[in-house]
Amino acid sequence: MELSEQQEQADLLLAGVVRGFSLLVLGVLITLCHIYAESMQLNWLEEDRVWLRTALYIVAMLTFLVMKFVRHVSLQLNLKPSDKPAKSRYLKTIIVSMLMAGTIGLYGILMFRLGDGFNTVYIFSVLAALAMFLYRPKVEEYRVVLMSIDKQME
């Protein structure tokens, strides 16, 4: 069952929408920080924020590694026989990837809430956007999932 390139793109449309929505939510959160900046900050001591910020930077970097592992495992599970169509299985992989990437952006919002400046928000947001770019829906991955289904049917 060979799909046309146009059909593959159509199948990945919802995955692309999920990615776009994730980026939109990130943008909305940054905008809310700008609008409600003074009223939402708790102004923790700088000393306390430095430790937490450092820990969150480490967690963000580890999240990239965990995302790579989770995505690899998820894609391998997509290759196993299942009643669910390849499209929905791959979509779940993308949703999990985008949720994990979104958490990185939330670290910046948290630090802003605790009293950090916009620079921290932007750094974590760029890291989240980078994760969303690296782990975006890919036609090649989807084709591999589709080919595994073809092999199972033979």
Helix content: over 70%
| Major sheet attributes | none
Low confidence ranges:
none
Instruction: State the domain count.
Output: 1
DSSP strand content: under 5%
Summed over residues and divided by their number, the pLDDT gives a mean of: 93
Q: Classify the secondary structure makeup into a structural class.
A: mainly alpha
Number of strand elements: 0
- Identify the overall geometry: elongated
Q: Please count the helical segments.
A: 7
Secondary-structure element pattern, one letter each: HHHHHHH
Indicate the radius of gyration in whole angstroms: 19 Å
The end-to-end distance, rounded to whole angstroms, is 10 Å
How is this structure best summarized?
This protein is mostly helical and 154 residues long.
Q: What can you tell me about this protein's structure?
A:
The protein is an all-alpha fold and 154 residues long. The chain has one domain (5-153). Helices cover 83% and strands 0% of the residues. The chain contains 7 helices and no strands. The protein is elongated and about 60 Å long. The model has no long low-confidence stretch (mean pLDDT 93).
Descriptive labels:
154 residues, mainly alpha, 7 helices, 83% helix, elongated
Topology:
Layout: H1 5-11, H2 13-35, H3 37-40, H4 46-78, H5 86-114, H6 118-134, H7 139-153
